[in-house]
Amino acid sequence: MIYTMTLNPAIDYKIVCERFELNQLNRFKKASLHPGGKGINVSAVLNNLGVQNEAIAILGGFTGRYLLERMKKDYRLDLKPIWVEGDTRINIKMTVDHETELNHEGPRVKDDIFEHILSIIRNMKKEDLLIVSGSAPSGQRDAYQQIAQLCDDLELRFVMDTPGDLFHQFIDHQPFLMKPNLKELNDYLLMDLFELDEIIFYGRQLIFRGVKHLIISLGERGSLYLDQEKAYLAHPLEGTVISSTGAGDSMVAGFIAMYELTKDPKLAFIEAVAAASATVFSGKLATHRDIQKYQTKVVIEEL
Predict the structure, then answer these.
(1) CATH number for the 176-303 domain, one of 2.40.30.110, 3.40.1190.20, 3.30.230.10, 3.40.50.2000?
(2) Per-residue pLDDT of the chain (303 residues; tens, 9 = 90+)
(3) Which residue in 12, 87, 249, 290 is the catalytic one?
(4) List of residues 6+ apart from 87 with CB closer than 8 A
């Protein structure tokens, strides 16, 4: 079974303003609510691909109930909630000329709740796969370190897709997949890598430390895949970018779905790139039909 775990989900409140002035009354005409979270997004795309999975999320209050209902309605996703005191956070994404984000830290997760989360992981089987995505919950700053250590002890495969400042918590515990962008990789390594050969060289240092599969997003240059033996560059697809929200989550879902089916990292990487592209060019989480459409357009170069 594939499990996803979202420890700090959110409802994004997206606002579009024609102009914005500080210390003034500002009005906007366009607004929309987008519930979710990185692990939840992964589960939604896995669902779209027909891959059985179970989504676990920390939820709280009326916003948590709203998120639960919307995910079931929009994506046929039956979340397994872990309820906490307080409300699931609302993040503000305001677009004027550029997007400005205001993210709340989320409800505090007490030690007994986090221990319950660890107990859920202890009951998983060796053949299972756990995907943990997003920011750490308030009150549990070392959450990812504890989860990674537990998975390592249990010999349970795990994927962590987190902000770069959390890499140090799990990178030495043999994650099955990591998906940093180049900036996150540079920040972690305290370097300024740009050329492909140096990115491959230093990316492989993470492989030697135990990371099984590494996908590095290179922005306009595409994406790079590394494991102990192979290096593949996926060239970017042509299309009109509508929204990059959820693209990384779609990439994780695409890779895991195809890898679990074929055990072929090249095919999995192609599926990952197709899934991310389907999300970027549609403005919504990738559907099976859109992923199939882009699969044949992905160009992979072995380096």
Answers:
(1) 3.40.1190.20
(2) 999 999 999 998 988 888 898 899 999 988 989 887 899 999 999 999 999 999 999 999 999 999 999 999 988 888 899 999 999 999 998 888 777 889 999 999 999 999 999 999 999 999 999 999 998 999 998 999 999 999 999 999 999 998 888 899 999 999 999 999 999 999 999 999 999 999 999 999 999 999 999 999 998 899 999 999 999 999 999 888 887 888 999 999 999 999 999 999 999 999 999 999 999 999 889 999 999 999 999 999 999
(3) 249
(4) 60, 61, 62, 63, 64, 107
Q: Where do the structural domains in the chain lie, given as residue ranges?
A: 1-19+30-175, 176-303
Amino acid identity for residue 14 in this structure = K
Cα radius of gyration rounded to whole Å, the chain = 19
290 is catalytic: no
- Rounded to whole angstroms, the Cα distance separating 128 from 157 reads 7
CA–CA–CA angle 59, 60, 64 (5° rounding): 65
SS3 label, residue 264: coil
Among 270, 25, 269, 252, smallest CA distance to 131 is for 252
Q: How far apart are CA 86 and CA 104, in angstroms?
A: 12
- In DSSP terms, 58 is beta-bridged to 82
Token couple for 115:
């221990």
Same topology between domain 1-19+30-175 and domain 176-303 = yes
Per the confidence metrics, is the pTM higher than 0.70?
yes
Question: In 3-state terms, what secondary structure has residue 88?
Answer: coil
The SS3 call for residue 150 is helix
Q: What CATH number should be reported for the domain whose range is 1-19+30-175? A: 3.40.1190.20
